[in-house]
Here is the input.
Amino acid sequence: MTADDVEFGEIKVMGIILNPTIENSFVSLANRKDRYLFVDKSDFIEITNKRLNEDDRFMAVTRPRRFGKTVTAHMLLAYYSKGYAGHKIFDDLEISNKASFTEHLNKYDVIYIDMNFICGLYKGYTKKSNKVPGVETLVDYLEYSVIKDLRERKDFSQCFEKHQIENTGLLEALSNLRNDLNTQFIFIMDEWDLVYRDYRDDTQLQEDFIDLLRNLFKSDGGKACFALAYLTGILPIKKYNSQSALNGFDEYNMLFPGEYAPYFGFTEDEVADIVKSPNCKVSHQNLKEWYEGYKIKGVDIYNPNSVCKAVSRNECISYWSKTSSNEEVVRLINMDFDGIKKDIMNLIEGARVQFDCGNFQNDMVNIEEKDDVFSLLVCLGYLGCSAVAEGEDEDLKLAYVPNKEIKRALMGIIRKQEWYERMETIKRSENLLKAILELDGTTAATLIQDVHNSPAVTLLDYNDEESLAYCVMTGLLWSTLGKYISRREEQAGKGRADLIYEPAIKGVTPLILIEFKYDGSAEEAIAQIKTQEYFKRYAGQYRNIIIVGINYSTKTKDHQCLIEKLD
Here is the structure.
């Protein structure tokens, strides 16, 4: 007998919404953990167990796409629901070592609502000619679907018949079940904010939706029906008049993440364990550079979906989901409140920009200023954020681009905009590459000096060759994208070359070797390239090799650049 066939007496517990058991991503991963990458975060269940029937039993966790929200929701479903045989799933996982493990395992009727699934069913329903009277909108259909599943359970149907109410509302139906059968539910809603994203202009539907949830969770009668309520989504709970529409929920989002950061995304230690596997061919450093950077409450978080794909495919590239959120970023940037375009360019180059998230309404429509744009981009995962300083106003944040994957995604979006080539940052980058290719050291030094004085670099402690290298790489960022592959500290000749730009397509453009000096001279840098023979590794592959020596003087605060073409 499989979990899909489990029955309790004469009560069949499987349903579409009530105790569903189909297509559970967590169970699929747990059953294949010996063959596929699986990170055990089941001890999160101990946290939700402690909240059961407590004052803080309503919680909402919102994170960007592909950050493990659905897998965690499926894990809670598999643990609490009467529709699963949980011992087979959890017995060798972390939660099995906790005192509360067996006490709550598969003891609850779970109302599990996947809003994407409901929305898909609703679209099919709208095409039918025999619609149910009174069921017109998505919210009507949602409430109808939950009640339908409840009514089809044999012992529950007797309760419905007893009260002889034909058009019972959901709150009334749950209250009757609670009073008559002493039944408590666990409520899990995945993608709770779909209405605010996919129906962003339908304010009436949004109000009806939030009214449904408010009725369920705000009244004492509604609260008594639930031992736990758990919402997931991308956007925090919608605000009205600066107050949360569901203020009974504890929220944990990207702007105010709370204490549960390690359970959504991979941590540094978890990635360290992943790369120890003999099947993993990518390095910890590469995974860190590409997918880490979401520093949440002092915890370094990696994008879990991207790490899994990189390990599976043995390649660190951008796996960032190319969804409608990309279109949203285009819309937000092109609003250009207070010079957002320039700010985004600076962010991509490494700058941090302060914003205030206090007035953000947690939706995609009420975007009235730059602060709202940055707040939404943080929620969507295109920006990370940190506190401005210890003890400062908690609404004040510093936005930054978290990693190489997001940088590539944003650069790809921006390069398609009609204003892209008109930006001064782009022109400077193109001119710097042009100066190097034309062996014009004087112009190159002037442009590097300009990069050094830009917002992206002035935040750094400019006190070593590493800082100098960052400055040059920032200057060449836009002009080399797609044309060159950059490598730092590459083994070459008799040592390690500081910075190499290798053409993406051989024979089209020259190889560029760059050596840095700090309080030395550009001549010394050029001499080191030659005496250490950094170029010899590439001499057989490239006929055109350009060598660049760059020095920064702490006395004059100037850059010096010499450029030669090797014969």
In short: The chain has a mean pLDDT of 90. The longest helix spans residues 203-218. The CA atoms of residues 214 and 246 lie 6 Å apart. The chain is about 40% helix and 15% strand.
